[in-house]
Amino acid sequence: MQLVPRRTQGRELSRLQRQMSDVMDRLFGFERPDLFETLEWAPLIDLSETNGDVQIKAELPGMKKEDINVDITGDMLTISGEKREEKEEEESDFFSKERYFGKFQRQVRLPAEVKSEEAKAVFKDGVLSILVPKKETSEKRRIEISEE
What we know:
Number of helices: 2
CATH class of the largest domain: Mainly Beta
Radius of gyration: 24 Å
Oligomer: single chain
CATH topology of the largest domain: Immunoglobulin-like
Helix content: 10-25%
CATH architecture of the largest domain: Sandwich
Largest sheet: 4 strands, antiparallel
Order of helices and strands: HHEEEEEEE
Structural class: alpha+beta
Distance between the termini: 61 Å
């Protein structure tokens, strides 16, 4: 096994991606889109559980609460919406454009049974906070096994 200096690893991966694209072109006659063009936008989330609640926090910077939907079906929470691109009045020459825009959907399986009818959501400073009370479940009980 050959050790590769860390600074050259990125170049090696980039070279490998170009080579694989060339092979795909020759075999199938089409170009594979660039990796960054295929990524879809979805908010990052934190999911936590306390004794009585399930808490979800989602980062949605630059959005308005009117453009966000929150749905719970069974044990599945869905956050969806659309982040609209700002329209520039004057034409600009971009040197880099890395922010994501467009429709998104993020689904997460909740770690416990919840009372969806009592869920609350607050959107402040670009963070969506969702609090969903858990259903009371029966206590775990050990059952003795007899020999008959």
